[in-house]
Specification:
The complex is a heterodimer.
Chain A: H1 22-44, H2 51-54, E1 70-72, H3 77-85, E2 92-96, E3 99-103, H4 109-118, E4 124-132, E5 141-149, E6 154-162, E7 167-169, H5 178-189, E8 192-194, H6 242-248
Parallel strand pairs in A: 3-6, 7-8
Antiparallel strand pairs in A: 1-2, 2-3, 4-5, 5-6
Chain B: E1 13-18, E2 30-36, E3 39-46, H1 54-58, H2 63-71, H3 78-93, H4 99-128, H5 132-152, H6 174-196, H7 200-206, H8 214-219, H9 225-229, H10 236-239, H11 260-284, E4 303-311, E5 314-322, E6 331-335, H12 337-342, H13 345-349, H14 354-364, H15 368-372
Antiparallel strand pairs in B: 1-2, 2-3, 4-5, 5-6
Helix pairs in contact in B: 2-3, 3-4, 4-5, 4-11, 4-14, 5-6, 6-11
Classes of the chains: A alpha/beta, B mainly alpha.
Chain lengths: 249, 373
Amino acid sequence: MTDEPTAPPDDAPVEPKPKLTDEEKAAKIAAAKAKAAAKRAAADGGGVEGDAAEAPPKPPWEEKPVPPERIEATDDPEAVALAAAVAGSVLGAERFAGDLTIRVPVAKIVEICRFLKTERGFAFLVDLTAVDWPGREEGRFDVVYWMHRFADQARLRLVTAVAEDRVIESVTGVWKTANWMEREVWDLYGIVFANHPRLERILTWEGFNGHPLRKDFPVEGIDTGAAIYPDHYPPGGGPLTDEEKERAT
Amino acid sequence: MSGPDRPLFDVEEMEVNFGPQHPATHGVLRLMVTLDGEKIVDARPIIGYLHRGTEKLFEQMDFPQCIPHTDRMDYIAAATNNQGFCVTMEKALGIAIPPRAAYIRMILAELQRLASHLVWFATHAIDIGAITPFFYNFRDRDEILDLFEEYCGARLTLNTMKIGGVPFELPEGWVDRCRAVIDAFPAKIDEYETLLTENRIWKKRTVGIGVVSPEDAVEWGLTGPPLRGSGVKWDIRKVFPYDRYDEVEFEVPIGSNGDTYDRYLVRVEEMRQSVRIVRQCLDRLPEGPLTARAPKVLRAKEGMVYGSVEAPKGELGYFVVTTEKSTKPYRCRVRPPSFVNLQALPDMVRGHLVADLVAVIGTLDIVLGEIDR
């Protein structure tokens, strides 16, 4: 330390130290930190002057990855517009890795989706799916809507929590493409969509007893009662009823 | 009923089962078709015969272990599936990949697009009755598969990308051999076009068949050539550039009528653009590392991430939900382009003749592996 303040002469009157405001304190702390960092850098560089300052920055692929942070985004224009149009529709909003997610209540999902499509221009439903969180308080399932707007290539995700015994309103009236996606969610998660034109199983067969993507469904599968080569084939496929089994044996 | 209103023949609707074991359904698609004579009143796709629970399996595996399973979804275009998953995971983990890796990925993805479109060309044409293109297409697709085999050892299920880059260096002389294949390609595309583009029978079978308006295309969530054939200029490579697609020049071809013939022209032009992209990538291929400096064990933060790529069939998206410090996806949803595109089939065939059904299935270019997952 060479730049230490010289001690005041003895005969000088002792002045009371002025009280620092918060900003001044922060500035002082920052200055001290910068000084310490510079000292450390000098020590690392083995005393070679300007070594740390002149080294070119490494390209990002040679640095450690920087994972994205979740940023609160309730003041995002989309969230603000939605909250203004549909009362109580925004339960929370955040940005993660550039994706905007808005949490909405399940009761108003159709109203919200229709507003976003007609007023905000989200004409394209890219994806509709669900996530299972067993034992969660606000509801076991998350239904996720992922939509796109062509005007400025913006994307928006809606997430709504649905309890296991609750029914969610279908958005097939808003976007036609939701039809099969909702059938898939019903098939794999067992979430019932009200007012769906044809809510049938789509990836498993009619009569399959279970919803495979639920977390409590075993990975190795369950015995559905369907034989690979039965003697008697039930009409329409699926497991045999008891009566048919008797007839077959 | 009697008098002048009575039809000459009794009109009786008939329900006919089509598939799942039928070569024109491109796999195991089953359709319940309601016919009025030869006219299609309704068609109802029944899918799920190839369901293997891939999304359930993803939840049991570490992030890198998922990649081989992505190959098995769209098995005609494995490289773009790999790319989609890797791009999404890199977004979730905050990994930046080195330029050489990005360029190798783009070369592989565009070669894959060529190979996929060749299979579409061959099968679409053979469904309608033009047998000849099949031989040319499969001969030339083999050259691309040879390049893949030389690079990663596999021809179909490539498993050729990893989170943070690509696993292998290009073999000695590969760039020259790839350039030779690519340089010969535009002439081959011309050759295919002489067989079909101005062919009167081909035009009779495709013009005005399966028309989709731009509004309907968006409403049905169509992506890829079916969307662009309807005149919507939209390509993930342009809109949300991944890897280094913002550094290469290419056009996004669009159609005007939204019929089967326009989608045919769009795909043919896409093949030319793919050739252009590969050529630029080979010219500019930078030196440098192949992988980013990522930790050996990848751990994610809590959050939801969606990433997508322009697969040959359309927008292939992965929606990954991760929990804090997890090494496995809590949920990994695949948004398969074929699944969403197939949904529009009943609207496209209604009112057409039963022979046009296979033309529309062919023009949608579906792969049941990714529809059923």
